[in-house]
Amino acid sequence: MxxxxxxxxxxxxxxxxxxxxxxxxxxLDTCPEPVEALTALLGATGTLLESRTTHPGARYSxxxxxxxxxxxxxxxxxxxxITGETDFIVERHRPLDALLEHLEAVRTLPGTAxxxxxxxxxxxxxxxxxAMLRDGPATGPAPPARPAGPLAVFxxxxxxxxxxxxxSQAWLVARSAGAGEEAVLERLAGYKDQLRAGAAAAxxxxxxxxxxxxxDPPAFAREQERLQELIRNGDCFQVNLTASWAYPWRAGAPDxxxxxxxxxxxxxxxxxxxxxxxxxxxxxxxxGSPELLVDWERDRLAMRPIAGTRPRGKxxxxxxxxxxxxxxxxxxxxxxAMLVDLARNDLAHAGMPASVRVPNLAGVERYxxxxxxxxxxxxxxxxxxxxxxxxxxxxxGGTVTGAPKRRAVTRIAEGERxxxxxxxxxxxxxxxxxxxxxxxxxxxxxxxxxxxxAHAGCGxxxxxxxxxxxxxxGFKARAQIESALGQAM
Length: 489
Fold this sequence. Notes:
By secondary structure, the chain is α+β, with helices and mostly antiparallel strands. It is about 30% helix and about 35% strand. The chain has eleven helices and 26 strands. Strands 3, 4, 5, 11, 12, 13, 14, 15, 16, 22, 25 and 26 form a twelve-stranded antiparallel sheet that branches. β25 and β26 form a beta hairpin. The mean pLDDT is about 90.
């Protein structure tokens, strides 16, 4: 165990100063499954970031424990929530800038080298926060079934369970933050005892089959036709158009255990390399995302745009035929190339322009139910890169907005009935020591106190078939809800 040397300081305001000590590490005898650990440590859980596949870029799962500070972003203010205190306003005039500055201040403090994340900020940014980074237009009012919530929520977790899937190892790490060695060791021992004891899984929450939809098929088809007219007139090349379906809870607002059970069932059916569970009283996230927005470790930046989809075949021969169809489809290839170019442009703004490369272009990656065209774009980060500049360059993601990105964000705000919220936003971390990784919140259910909300979308281009996407979106959203419930509705 290390000595409690102070390694860095973060100041929220004059009254809240956090001095981080060195890390204490406690290795576990066994390597728990992330959902089992979530269930056992649910009362202390701030956020779970989970790797549900064997993709080499998704080696670790992290369970952030006992958050010390929570920052909540709204259009007109940044709020702080600290255990045992009344919520207070941190910043009114430039709340998003202030939030990103606090993330950066912790990210630049010393960390440890055993895994990319071993303490720091865990949280999410909404699609609208990304639009704000690009001076995008305001969206319309939120629909009644999806009341306006925060634009971002981040939790400072200096206690973390790290699961290394490649090495089949797990450990707990904690920092004193001024509490002293005895308190740190007591917390670590408590976590270990709870993991050993485990906990019974709760019954997942249920919903009523009466969804409120933001864009029904006729409205979606009309909006698609409007976008295609704009595309033909040279206004833009592609716009990602989405809709949402809000299903009322059957028995009132579910507790954290019922939501965790929903998350476990949903991600078992929709495993992704960048899953996540973020429980919250206003808006909880249950994400099975397969897509990485950006990864920043040391001086390496990486993006993995996904565009182009086919279902999995029922036989190996059918699967191979569908993969070949995806590889050779002119529309899919053109759309994918456009979005790879957009990712290259984004990374050129964040990284060193001459370093941008595409080591893997338009490969077919197979998931349980679908296959996608996926590319990898990498660049070298300059020494003075900050998180605000990185997110300002790559977020929101091009695969969920369109191209040119700024124009696509404008058309999204005009055509979708209300804000997207967390959907197509990003969930990730800014860790002590500098590493930072962010997913794209697709294949993600959001839970409010009144509804479970599913989202679906598609990229509209000039060659899109009018009405086809509108008919498919409802089936996609319903399939997400049915997979979480474990039954047909």
